[in-house]
Amino acid sequence: MLSIEGTDGNMSSMDRVDKIIDKYECETGVLIQLLLEIQKTLNWIPPEAIIRISKRLKIPVSEIYRVASFYTALSLKPRGRHVVRVCAGTACYVRGGPRILDSVERALCIRAGETTSDDKFTLETVNCLGCCALGPVVEIDGQYHGKQTSSNVVKLLASYP
Amino acid sequence: MEKLKTPDDLEELRKGILAKKDPRRLAITMCVSTGCEALGVKEVIKAFKEEFQKRGLEGKVEIKETGCIGFCEKGPRVVVYPEEIYYFKVKATDVPEIVSKTLLGKEVVERLLYTDVATGEKERRLSEIPFYKYQKRILLDDNAKVDPKSIEDYLALGGYSALAKVLSQMTPEQVLEEVRKANLRGRGGGGFPTFRKWESTRKASGEPKYVIVNCDEGDPGAFMNRALMEGNPHSILEGLIIGAFAIGSNEGFIYVRQEYPLAVENMQLAINQAEEYGLLGNNILGSGFDFKVKIHKGAGAFVSGESSALMTAIEGKVGEPRPKYVHTSEKGVWDKPTALNNVETWATVPLIINKGAEWFRSIGTEGSKGTKIFALAGKVNNTGLVEVPMGMTLRDIIVKIGGGIQNGKKFKAVQTGGPSGGVIPEQYLDSPVDFDELVKLGSIMGSGGMIVMDEDTCMVDVARYFVNFLCDESCGKCVPCREGLKQARKILDNIVSGNGKEGDIEKLTEIAEATSAASLCALGQTSANPMLTTIRYFKDEYEAHIKEKRCPALVCKKLTSYYVNPAKCAACTLCYRNCPVDAIEGERGKIHVIDQAKCVKCGTCFEVCPPAFRAVQKLSGEPVPPPIPEEQRWIKKGQKGAAN
């Protein structure tokens, strides 16, 4: 489990959550945008952040949890240092996407949605990355890698420190 | 920058921008949207910058980063101006040659030109390449010309002139009338007349009124909205402001899925620029009309692309659909009248205003006017975005523009409309593509995904893929969709894993029909399409899976085995070395054998076996031959296959 009182810079994770809430405090209908920003900053939505949002914005914890668990871009579990997303869109699928996912799962010894025990990789599938011409596509930390094969995706993963 | 106060100010500014442009200036343009970026365009740009520095050409040659022109398969592409020569599949190592030969020496680098697969001819211009020749690019054409991060580029092409015309010369009623005459229908999939949506929002009681751009392109296999928003965000914004004026709305939202970070970035920049120039905000161009707009990022839920669900997501809630007895045009976001349209629909509006409804009506079929952008993908030679007039046949799109099927394989079906659409087999390829014709075939146009499938695609597996997708994405609010899809997935899982039973097809049909009839929103209502069309057109494949436990396309893992044909194996050890689970026995000179008990059927051996040998084969519906005896496995040098 990652520590909530983080060590990045001089600011703890909860300070950063507070800063994000400050930005949205006066607006209505901001919960999703707020959670997306926390997700981006901390790489997940810690339970403490949900409680803090609830207290400050007077939104029931249950409602925040409902939103956070509904959307796939929001993660209620800490994620690894590198996020590997295998495209599961139709175009990638017919070009052998499932085999790429199998290879990644085998290479990392985890299933989609899980994180390796050393917190190095989190594996996810994504509905479509919108570069269907390059399928099958794998995205690692925002970098797109097109035209993957079962064997070269394994080499690609090995190249990450 | 001082704000523009009148339409004349805008024209003055435009004149100034055009006067600065030198048509003879040396320039290169490159696509920097997601597709080309994945193919390494950033390195190519870096190489150009370095090369210019080395040769003292800095500032003398303009480097322009543009949006997607659709031919993603052949990226990264570079266009050299003023001659307008198109180079494809450019690598950083090609850059010095382009600079010395083409930019300075006025000579064409032949090997980087597009080569026609059929004739072997080289083409220099875009309009000569078959992929483009048969398209009608009224929306996408500008993507090649504008830097999406520059409002001046958009203005140079006449940008915001439609807005100026609307604000200074037209009443909202006249704008509505023009859109009605044009018979513009919603590009997001439904094909609902845009005019009716706008008019009912305008007439609805309640203030404020909202307008929304839907760019929650969740359909897996579609990326036309992304290309437009990344490549020409101002065109969408201009259409939105015009629509807002016609409807009487002063506030809008642009809903973009967060999986498209570049689209979000470019759109936000466009909004900021438009505000700075006085094209957004209070008293736009001195007309007294106010309009502001905000981006809302979608957090990854397919169902949130449904209009009522998208509106609840904008309110910050779980994006679930609601019954639409009361239309969103009357009660939408925060129960206020709301008009929501797709990216492509909004981007079409300025064109209609500028060129007139008559011009727009001259393109397309009786019921569907204008053009439609499709994301042509799958097993077709030319993958990418294609914009065609409504009514072009599927065959023309796939064969003439798409260049036919990859690797000379046989066409099997084309899937349109994403998970809500269906598959269309060979015999209907001559059907014209428009909103109504595709429905007759059991599919829909949807937002424009078009996935081509060849003989190596298993249609039962495709149905299972879509049902699995819909099952995961069903919000669970209504029972028929939540439970029906789950049961359908169970049956399909059984069939693809060899546990299908007699009667499964009938049961699947019944579930599909019930789910479709009783679901609340379009996700459930159209979920039957992938199942019913595959059953209608490819029943024999279902039967082969159920009765013979055979997958004719050799796709379904549980029904397929990998086998090294000893007569063809050259004992090169490639498969042996690449097998991730050490299931292959052998060594150099000794024929390889797959241990079926260890094999995980990942397909790596099949992938790496050199095409000259094709020794690794897939089998289905028949037993794997026993391994050849140990003593017969050795082969002599240079020989291929076992001695006997």
Which helices and strands, and how do they pair?
The complex is a heterodimer of chains A (161) and B (644).
Chain A: H1 13-24, H2 31-42, H3 47-57, H4 61-70, E1 82-87, H5 90-94, H6 97-108, E2 121-126, E3 138-140, E4 143-145, H7 150-158
Parallel strand pairs in A: 1-2
Antiparallel strand pairs in A: 1-3, 3-4
Chain B: H1 7-20, E1 27-31, H2 34-38, H3 41-54, E2 62-66, E3 78-81, E4 85-87, H4 95-104, E5 114-115, E6 122-123, H5 130-133, H6 151-156, H7 161-169, H8 172-182, H9 194-203, E7 210-215, H10 224-231, H11 233-247, E8 251-257, H12 261-276, E9 292-298, H13 307-314, E10 338-342, H14 343-355, H15 357-361, E11 371-378, E12 384-389, H16 394-401, E13 411-416, E14 423-425, H17 435-440, E15 449-454, H18 459-473, H19 479-496, H20 504-518, H21 522-525, H22 528-537, H23 539-547, E16 560-564, H24 574-578, E17 584-587, E18 590-594, H25 604-608, E19 616-620
Parallel strand pairs in B: 1-2, 7-8, 7-10, 8-9, 11-15
Antiparallel strand pairs in B: 1-3, 3-4, 5-6, 11-12, 13-14, 13-15, 16-19, 17-18
Helix pairs in contact in B: 7-11, 7-14, 8-9, 8-11, 10-12, 11-14, 18-19, 18-22, 19-20, 20-22
Main sheet strand line-up of chain A: 2-1-3-4
- The number of helices of chain A is 7
Main sheet characteristics of chain B: 5 strands, mixed
Strands of chain B, count: 19
By CATH's scheme, which homologous superfamily of the largest domain in chain A applies?
Glutaredoxin
In the CATH hierarchy, what is the superfamily of the largest domain in chain B? NADH-ubiquinone oxidoreductase 51kDa subunit
| CATH architectural group of the largest domain in chain A | 3-Layer(aba) Sandwich
Helix content of chain A: 40-55%
| Number of separate domains of chain B | 5
Poorly predicted regions of chain A: 1-7
